């Protein structure tokens, strides 16, 4: 094992810092908001921004209607260029297939469904429940 690999394994990196370094979000505060808001799952459970990430862990990230599951391949606290950031993770095959299938479904609806009014409180609850059902069913 090389010296760089030993340093990388012994290095403790917070979840919000890793998400920022892997370029999923533009700022660390956005990372923290996403984690605290339940948009980021760490190994199948709700994550905490201060949690230390481990190599091989699965992270599920939800942005709007898109959801992706990535496996951690490397650790970094520093934000670098996109080619280096892509080396920190790899998306699972199931996640790629699910995102492509959802993109086709979304495109078949013409991008989005427009309503003639803003949703009221009950409609917002129904929309949120629908999103939870869609993301938890797959």
Automatic annotation (TrEMBL):
Residues 107-138 are annotated as: Disordered. Residues 13-80 form the RNA-binding S4 domain. GO terms for biological process: cellular response to heat. It comes from the Bacteria. InterPro entries: HSP15, S4_RNA-bd, S4_RNA-bd_sf. Coiled coil: none annotated. Keywords: DNA-binding, RNA-binding, Stress response. Gene3D superfamilies: RNA-binding S4 domain (3.10.290.10). The keyword Transport does not apply. One of its GO terms (molecular function) is DNA binding. NCBIfam families: PRK10348.1. Belongs to the HSP15 family. This is Heat shock protein 15. It comes from Marinomonas gallaica.
